[in-house]
Design a protein that fits this description.
mainly alpha
Length: about 55
């Protein structure tokens, strides 16, 4: 009985789980957050270790 309830719970929670799209997260950022994210991308593309600044 417990296994059935656990499987039912997992199935129901899987139906309501929403996949997070990275583009949606970027759109939700404000201007200053987008600017910082862009600067990290420029650092990383330039070969610098961006983790030092993070």
């Amino acid at each position: 009985m417990k296994k059935i309830l656990v499987l039912l719970f997992l199935f129901c929670s899987g139906l309501f789980a929403k996949e997070i799209n990275p583009a949606e997260q970027i759109v939700a950022l404000n201007h200053s957050q987008k600017k910082i994210l862009y600067e990290f991308a420029v650092l990383r593309k330039g070969g610098a270790d961006a983790n030092v600044y993070y």
